[in-house]
Design brief:
about 200 residues, mainly alpha, globular
Length: about 200
């Protein structure tokens, strides 16, 4: 099984990395860094592919927000106060920390996916967002990929059978990512249920 996993990473790792970073990508990029530390992928290419995937994904969402943002946000927040609260928070951050938000929104878990959509629907100039988004994508790709790479190298220093443990570590990180997604999904469902129950009472 470990050999099959290594073969998959070696042959399809860059494609999976691009798709994963296009959609969101922290976990897949950490896995890419670990694979680079194990010698299955090249760290330089991991960074380049992650940069391209993340940049393409967020630019796509931004342009969707530019043309359809108001309509989409209206549907997303209709009868969902917890989503409206997130949109309002993004607007406040945009007003107070304009540059820092556009540079570092990839590190804001929970808001990361909605920020490009909200910014696209705002008055932020396209050229400004593109410029800051390029810098932010580069910083994010280098930071997260190198973090995964250094973590993988640290394992090699402390584990005598690093190659044997490599697959276990990769599966473990993937399992943790799935667990985080499940917990977050359940939390959002509970928040939505509470908001729905409290709505008629407040009215």
């Amino acid at each position: 099984m470990l050999e099959q996993l290594s073969h998959f990473i070696e042959n399809y790792g860059y494609y999976a990395l691009f798709v994963g970073t296009f959609l969101e990508g922290e976990t897949i990029l950490v896995l890419g860094g670990l694979a680079a530390a194990a010698g299955d992928l090249n760290l330089g290419w991991v960074i380049v592919v992650a940069f391209c995937g993340s940049l393409a994904g967020d630019q796509t969402v931004f342009f969707i927000g530019r043309f359809l943002g108001t309509r989409i946000l209206g549907r997303l927040t209709a009868h969902r106060p917890w989503r409206q609260a997130r949109v309002d928070k993004v607007h406040r951050l945009l007003e107070r920390h304009h540059v820092l938000l556009l540079l570092g929104f990839r590190f804001l878990y929970g808001l990361r996916n909605i920020i490009p959509l909200v910014v696209g629907s705002s008055e932020v100039k396209t050229s400004r967002f593109v410029f800051l988004n390029v810098i932010g994508a580069a910083v994010w790709a280098v930071t997260v990929a190198c973090g995964g790479f250094l973590f993988g190298k640290a394992l090699e220093l402390f584990l005598e059978k690093a190659k044997w443990y490599q697959g276990i570590v990769l599966l473990g990180v993937a399992g943790i990512a799935v667990l985080i997604w499940i917990v977050r999904h359940l939390y959002l469902r509970r928040a939505a249920r509470r908001a729905k129950q409290s709505g008629p009472t407040s009215a």
